[in-house]
């Protein structure tokens, strides 16, 4: 049985006349009668009572008409959904991001704008460390990821990365800290002896190592007193006075109580945001990436 058999049947059921049904279908009457008879033979039931004067549905035919309409409607819906997915108008999009990314206006506005403009696409956002994002991308659990790092991330297999933006770094410290009152940008000499709250190796994605190397280059040692996995915990401990930390400029949009931000001038300290994805973008990921580029600050 093919969908055309159902269309033929429904036309005859609506017209209750083979001649008129054939005319509306654009075929001659004998082939139409043959197709209906073949359908009845395949089903093993009589769909129509035929006499020389009239055609009418049998009880089984009346029920079959309801189900045939439902089947054709579902088939049309399936085709429409497939076309919308192919065109990037419907489907799912899963995006991973490190904890500081929602404070980047270009990215957060893209999240909001994409959800508003494409309500038929189910957008899932997952806060994850860099290594977990890479693993999820390889396993097909993510479509896109946002990670930070001074250098382009080293990615396995066919994963690719592109630079979204770069921004200077700030020192975050308790608002009663003596350095919070300084009017000039802070330098390595100002912060070298301070206790630091830093990301863990997973949460920091290599950032700790970058700072440690810069300190070592100047003959100093980074004094880390606490490691955390998320930005909220980091700023919470800074607000409690446990130490200071280094954050990207966009994080200063988060006005955490008890936390002040000061500019930092230190060679080699810069935050770069990278978008990572698989080698072949889908129509949906292309739509998101295009929107992200349109919002470039």
State the main characteristics.
42% helix, 297 residues, Arc Repressor Mutant, subunit A, three-stranded antiparallel β-sheet, alpha/beta, D-Maltodextrin-Binding Protein, domain 2, 12 strands, five-stranded mixed β-sheet, 3 domains
Summarize the structure.
The protein is of the alpha/beta class. Helix content is 42%, strand content 22%.
Strand order within the widest sheet? 4-3-5-12-6
The total count of strands amounts to: 12
Name the beta content range. 15-25%
Note the main sheet: 5 strands, mixed
Morphology call: rod-shaped
Number of individual domains:
3
Helix/strand structural class: alpha/beta
Oligomer: single chain
| Contiguous runs where pLDDT drops below 50 for at least 5 residues | none
User: Count the helices. How many?
Assistant: 11
* Average pLDDT metric: 89
Round the Cα radius of gyration to an integer and report it: 32 Å
What does this structure look like?
This protein has 297 residues and is α/β, with parallel strands linked by helices. It has three domains: 3-86, Winged helix-like DNA-binding domain superfamily/Winged helix DNA-binding domain (Arc Repressor Mutant, subunit A); 91-166 and 273-294, Periplasmic binding protein-like II (D-Maltodextrin-Binding Protein, domain 2, 3-Layer(aba) Sandwich), CATH 3.40.190; 169-269, D-Maltodextrin-Binding Protein, domain 2, CATH 3.40.190. It contains eleven helices and twelve strands. The chain has helices at residues 3-15, 18-25, 29-43, 59-86, 105-117, 130-138, 188-191, 201-204, 207-217, 231-239, 283-294, and strands spanning 48-50, 55-57, 91-97, 121-127, 144-148, 160-167, 169-174, 195-199, 223-228, 245-248, 259-263, 271-277. It has a five-stranded mixed beta sheet, with helices on both faces. A three-stranded antiparallel beta sheet has the order 10-7-11. Strand 1 (48-50) and strand 2 (55-57) form a beta hairpin. Helix 1 crosses helix 2. The longest helix has 28 residues, at 59-86.
